[in-house]
Design a protein that fits this description.
single chain, alpha+beta, Beta-Lactamase, Arc Repressor Mutant, subunit A, 3 domains, five-stranded antiparallel sheet, 15 helices
Length: 372
């Protein structure tokens, strides 16, 4: 139980500390639970489409989180606590006695199938933040022995709730700056990049990335998500972003997924996109940066150009070697000399390459090679 004002200030301070050091949320919630004589402190997001919704509950067996999913505790039609929180004004403190009768409490499936078996039949809760697709709730859960929260304990909870809300808002603001900061760094390096949230939504993009979209080369931004014009490319891109957002790279697999996005009519060379996971915190309330998609520069390394020529356009090893020399500005005669073959052989290889890349002249061939 809360002893004095100094303890109250320590709890409030710990929530503010948690906003900038996310490992401290659990400890802050433990302090809140102790100050209100409750078994557990709880912080939860509901209705958010993020890949990793927040749910912290102190002093409980970890199995409760799987049980929470199984019993769909986030569904207001199943859980009267959630329904009450969704309908209550922000920071309005409510308990079971405010939204369910004792008779209903005794027979309701949520309490008999979930709350009582887990030893938390009573609660005191408030809604900290409500957006179109996100509700953030704060609660202290109580055992059968602890019973309903009393007036003094409720006042402690109510007095600290605004400070918890302020800490949540502070963290959300910091998360919002993350995309802008990353965009600024990538912009400074002139890297064409898209910064995406855990949901796959694009939070920010650099000027050179905007230029790629304006060029209409098979990549577009629809409903705040990167989309490819060809179905197979779109599926591959979406899957790569989703896997990166969830950190699902298999052990031993490359940390970066490379996706080719083709022009619908294949007039332009494909855009090469690298999709990679960004470091993330264990607790994020909103769409913090989670994935970065980088479009490779127009003059890539020989290794990348080789992979494209052989894997996408079916160049032979010899044709690839000639292509690399052409891209460096070497003449047919110098290439033949360097490779110790006849000039006619090089010209035959160039003719084959013209056909494979769908161009008619050597100057066009060199231009296409330098676009890879």
């Amino acid at each position: 139980m809360l002893k004095d004002d100094e303890q109250w200030l320590a709890i409030a301070d710990e929530f503010y500390n948690a906003a900038v050091d996310r490992d401290r949320w659990y400890g802050a919630l433990e302090m809140l639970a102790a100050a209100t004589g409750s078994r557990a402190g709880e912080l939860i997001t509901i209705g958010h489409d993020a890949a990793l919704p927040v749910h912290i509950m102190t002093n409980m067996d970890p199995g409760i989180f799987a049980a929470s999913d199984e019993h769909r505790i986030g569904d207001p039609e199943i859980n009267p606590r959630v329904k009450a929180g969704m309908n209550a004004p922000l920071l309005n403190v409510i308990t079971e006695s405010d939204f369910i009768t004792p008779d209903e409490h005794a027979i309701h499936p949520h309490y008999n199938e979930f709350a009582r078996p887990w030893g938390i039949p009573y609660i005191c809760l408030t809604t900290l933040e409500r957006q179109s697709d996100l509700l953030i709730g704060l609660a202290v859960a109580r055992s059968e022995r602890e019973g309903h929260i009393d007036t003094a304990q409720r006042e402690v909870f109510a007095s600290l709730a605004p400070h918890v809300r302020a800490a949540v808002k502070m963290q959300i603001a910091l998360e919002g700056h993350g995309a802008a900061l990353m965009r600024g760094a990538l912009e400074t390096l002139s890297i064409p990049a898209f910064v995406c949230a855990r949901t796959g939504a694009v939070l920010a993009l650099t000027t050179s990335a905007e230029e790629i979209l304006r060029a209409e080369r098979g990549l577009s931004l629809r409903d705040r998500r990167l989309r490819a014009s060809r179905d197979e490319d779109d599926r591959a891109l979406t899957e790569a972003i989703q896997k990166a957002a969830r950190g699902l790279t298999a052990p031993g697999a490359p940390a970066v997924s490379t996706i080719l996005v083709h022009d619908t009519h294949e007039v332009n060379p494909p855009i090469v996109l690298d999709v990679m996971t960004l470091p993330s915190a264990a607790l994020e309330f909103t769409s913090a940066p989670r994935v970065v998609v980088v479009a490779r520069g127009s003059r890539g390394a020989d290794s990348r150009r080789t992979a494209l020529l052989r894997g996408v356009y079916g160049f032979t090893s010899a044709e690839t070697d000639v292509a690399l020399l052409l891209a460096r500005g070497q003449s047919t005669e110098l290439i033949a000399q360097a490779r110790k073959v006849a000039v006619g052989t090089v010209r035959t290889q160039i003719k084959s390459m013209l056909a494979k890349l769908g161009v008619g002249r050597q100057v066009e061939l060199v231009a296409r090679l330098n676009d890879l």
